[in-house]
Amino acid sequence: MGNNGHDGALSPMGRCGDGRFSMRKMIHIATASRDALERLAADSGKSFQDLMDEAIADVLKKHKRPVTLTEMLRGSLASGDKGKTANRRPT
Fold first, then answer.
1. pLDDT cut 70: percent of the chain above it
2. For the chain, what is the total number of helices (H) and then of strands (E)?
3. Taking a C-beta distance cutoff of 8 angstroms, is the pair 67, 60 a contact?
4. From CA 28, how far away is CA 26, in angstroms rounded?
5. What is the pLDDT of residues 8-42, one digit of tens each?
6. Cα(68)–Cα(56) distance, rounded to whole angstroms?
7. Is 39 exposed, middle or buried (0-12, 13-18, 19+ CB in 10 A)?
């Protein structure tokens, strides 16, 4: 068992410093890549986490996947069945 009391690479949901919920996941990054990212973080004044968030967002955009909750909801509405709106109450 890890020091967080859980087996495996996942830890329970918690709050980020900005109030969002997050889940931690352990990943392996090659030593050379990690060193280069740490130097980039120091040179750019960003945190390692900021660089990882940026990289993940870029990969999702490259593969035309939603990045934010707003984008996910818009995509869900756009791809939803048009016939389902018939059961909505008039406004």
1. 65
2. 3, 2
3. yes
4. 7
5. 454 555 655 566 667 888 999 999 999 999 999 99
6. 12
7. exposed
Rounded to the nearest angstrom, the gap between the alpha carbon of residue 82 and the centroid of all alpha carbons in its chain is 29
In Å, what is the CA distance from 90 to each residue of 68, 80, 85? Answer: 29, 19, 10
Tokens 């900021």 appear where?
50
User: Which residues are within 8 A (CB) of 41 and not within 5 positions of it... i.e. 6 or more apart?
Assistant: 47, 48, 50, 51
Nearest to 43 by CA among 31, 53, 35: 35
Instruction: Tell me the whole-structure pTM to 2 decimals.
Output: 0.58
